[in-house]
């Protein structure tokens, strides 16, 4: 059995509901299952069907084989971070090049179950690419609101080629989300695919499931923008613990860019509520100043005794350079996880003997910044 439940006031709703805001207090709902973990005859995300969407008919599942991403270790990463046992789980190896595919396979499958013909999202890029692909596979028309001039062209191209209807909105991602919320308040024909949709979190949980089935990490670090992944990783840890599948609770390290760090301010300044900021960072995927999932994310930071850190753009780019030059490569925002871990290692908060997993959220080709290429003379080969 599955229900939608408000994490703040506790009100419960039927899962056939597609309004994911609590009627009583307006907070974003969570999906709660009362199931044991039974391994399914799938690979990747849907292997965990019994604890991400047990009730859906398998014929309605829209999948591209997402999940089961590779884990990298490299001496350059260990040397840079000061941590011997550090691994990088690369979500950029999902079908459209980011972790979003894990959530989108569940959310679009749910749109199919509910009978929707149109999907809608606001996006800085990765969400739009994933939503466009999975909606196209399902035969559903997809609409994308993008912040004008605030999206990487590589990501915009993906949404375009998959056939999305793309609408430019003045301002940043938070402005686009405001437009989206206004649209759905007046028109219930659209199924929303942003991370206010709790089924997205259900798919993204599987990042942590894959780690925890085979490892006992001390820390799991990830970039933090809209805080859907911080919520998902925390929910996965709690569920595996509640099911008795793990005894040790790893600490989440949620890393924001310094220019877009309202969650950092909330946690580290002991504020009562999140105060939105005007975001500015080179890491476009986490250039978000008013993250909608902050209440749920805060709950799981507390549950895991987690840490919220912030890093500068230079620290992100330095970490990215190490990842790229190790032959692994990642999207710019992805490197925030390694940058944050290095900062905590330098401060003595993470020990060199701790086991650490860093989540790389996107592919190296997602957000390209290349300047001053140093071309070699042909004579170097002589």
TrEMBL record:
It catalyses: O-phospho-L-homoserine + H2O = L-threonine + phosphate. Keywords: Amino-acid biosynthesis, Lyase, Pyridoxal phosphate, Threonine biosynthesis. Its EC number is 4.2.3.1. Pathway: Amino-acid biosynthesis; L-threonine biosynthesis; L-threonine from L-aspartate: step 5/5. Residues 62-362 form the Tryptophan synthase beta chain-like PALP domain. Pyridoxal 5'-phosphate binds at residues 126, 225-229, 361. SUPFAM superfamilies: Tryptophan synthase beta subunit-like PLP-dependent enzymes. GO terms for molecular function: L-serine ammonia-lyase activity; pyridoxal phosphate binding; threonine deaminase activity; threonine synthase activity. The keyword rRNA-binding does not apply. GO terms for biological process: isoleucine biosynthetic process; L-serine catabolic process; L-threonine catabolic process; threonine biosynthetic process. The modification N6-(pyridoxal phosphate)lysine is found at residue 100. Its cofactor is pyridoxal 5'-phosphate. Belongs to the threonine synthase family. This is Threonine synthase. It comes from Picrophilus torridus (strain ATCC 700027 / DSM 9790 / JCM 10055 / NBRC 100828 / KAW 2/3).
